[in-house]
Amino acid sequence: MSVTSMPPSRLASARLAPSRLALPSAARALWLEFKRNAVPYVLPLLAAVFYFNTVRTADGFPPVWTLRASAITDHMLFEFSAFAGGLAAWAGSREGRRKTTDMVATTPRAAWARLSITLAGTLSWLLLAFLAGVAVLYVQTALQATWGGPPLWPVFVGAAGVTVVTVIGFACGVLFPGRFTAPLVAIVALVLFQTGLRQALGVAASSGTYALLSPASSPPVVDAGVYYHAAPDLSIVQVMFMGGTALALFGALGLATALRELTPSRGLASLRAGLARTDGWLLRAVAVILVACGVAASWTAFALAGTAKPDAVGGWQIPALHSAASDQPVPATPACTSSSGFQVCVHPAFSFYLNDVAAVLDPVAAEIAGLPGAPLSAKEVASISGGQDVPSGISGNPPVFEFTAERVGMYFGQFLGIPDPVGWREGFQQGLLDAFLARPSQQAGSVPLGPAQQAVEDALLTAAGANVSATIGKMLENGQPIAGPPAVRSAAQRFGALSASARHAWLAGHLAALRAGTITLAQIP
Amino acid sequence: MTAAEVLKPPASPAGVAGPGPAGLRLVWLHLRSRRAPAGIGALAVCGALLHLALHWHWAFNSGAYAQQVPMIIEAGAATVIAVTAYSPFGETERSAGRWLPCLRLLTVAGMCGLAIALLQLGAVGESLNAGVLVLARNVIGITGIGLLCSLVTGALLAWTLPMGYMLFCQYALLQAWTAPWVWPVRPPADRGAWIWACAVFAAGLLLFAIRGPRTRLSDDS
Lengths: 525, 221
What we know:
The structure holds 2 protein chains of 2 kinds. Chain A is of the alpha+beta class.
């Protein structure tokens, strides 16, 4: 028996027979690309950066969906830009780097199809990683949030951002295959991101609004998307711009081979020969159509961004895309508590701090209960209305102390600006007393209290259990809070030493004069 | 075609193998094999980018944000130096190159000096927030990270770890971290930051000079 006469084994023939489960050739090539791609090697590093730059930053925000989701475009896209651009350039430069361009040019598949598979493999890995990151962020928020659901537009914008940076990097790798392409693309992507952020932060309707095309921006107000829907106008334009750019570049990749043949050194002859060629005309036509569609989409988005104008709730609207439905308030039943008779209501999105606010306001409200103008309840309202910041204050009949998630009294940014719990607590108490002791015409916190008002406020805060000496002072010097002068402290101590009923009686008789600023420190008992 | 024809050494093209001392020629060939001239061009691009960023106020003028864009560009220069470490000859060169450690050391040190000079040139006449000291410290330290990374990933992917470190430093900058190992966020004259940056650079340079970059992982992918 010789080798030639030996029948092939059953196993071998089974291997040679076409499998019923065989994938199409393009899918097999994509699977191969998946396995050989460099992105998985970098994922641990990307995950570490994601944890610090995105997860920890988002952790510092209150668990409000729109605010937490802003970390996707402001932070997550930043780190993904660097790696998406660099790794895509690395994948795109593979043929050039290995000097196999001529060898693979002889394969029956078009260069565009070959490059598309490499690009698809890289992009799929990056989008998978991106979506996994979004899932981590959203699951964490879902466990903490008390109202609302995950906004999808920031995810679309982020995915479009990752896609466009990947395609740009890939195109750079194909056209300029070199060892420096990947790091330089990564750096330029980051610089572009930061430049976009810088321009977006300074954007104003009067000076052009094209910078709004940048996906990065400052964090929205704390209650964005809570009282009113977050209009998707800007997100639509950003996705259109980035998607169009990616599409045009992808089409340009299809034309890259033909363009290389039309080198100037070959003159008009090469142009005539290129036009006369009939092979691959369909692919070239498709590529041209993609470029045209991409440029049209990007240009349209660019033009639309120029028409943006501020909307009533602190965002931007684009008239051609704006839906009036997003201007309607979002229905929600407030979360309220009134354990000691003083009712405190907050939006359900902020119900996680309802009890804390009530515990802080109750003692102060008890000190002034029954006095003229003293609030019977406290209510959280939207922080922006009619395009203007809403200050806290006492209004209505019966009087209600209104505060916002962004502002109480002289304090701005309850969550972001006052990290220490003592400051946060006394910010609320001061906000209530500022509004109570100030003149009715003046907004709480807009003008510092007079010495007598300040002394009374300090005494009432002390009586309510606050450690006034440890708090930030209420009087301002050169715009900075300072401890009150000795005379104010002395008057506050005198007034604080009175019994609660005596304080109450004195206030009932002198409140109007105290608000008008005609009471001196010496007149305080 | 006969074997004699194959064995006959090809004539050197004019201008490539010019006359000169053997040492200089060795250095020049080493630099060319590392694409050092193109690397210098890439460093010049980084310098130009820094100039444009400062001139057109792409970055903020003061505060923590002001350091962000310069730090990105400095890290870019450092990654260019790290990527220059790639050798197309791999094992062959290692077995035959007696002067290789010295050449590697000189190349990286020279490229570092050049990077600092070119970036500083880009900042001339503009307001660089933290000055040339922070610029130099960032380039030196992040280059050290890139060289260490090249021992693991190979030189062509040695830009990844410096990029990750720089992105982490962006976060540390805004969160006001003060640990000395996060040297890009420290003041110019901070001794701890200088010690960390120089130590990382020295470790990276030493190991890189002795061992050379890994020649398998990244080069095959």
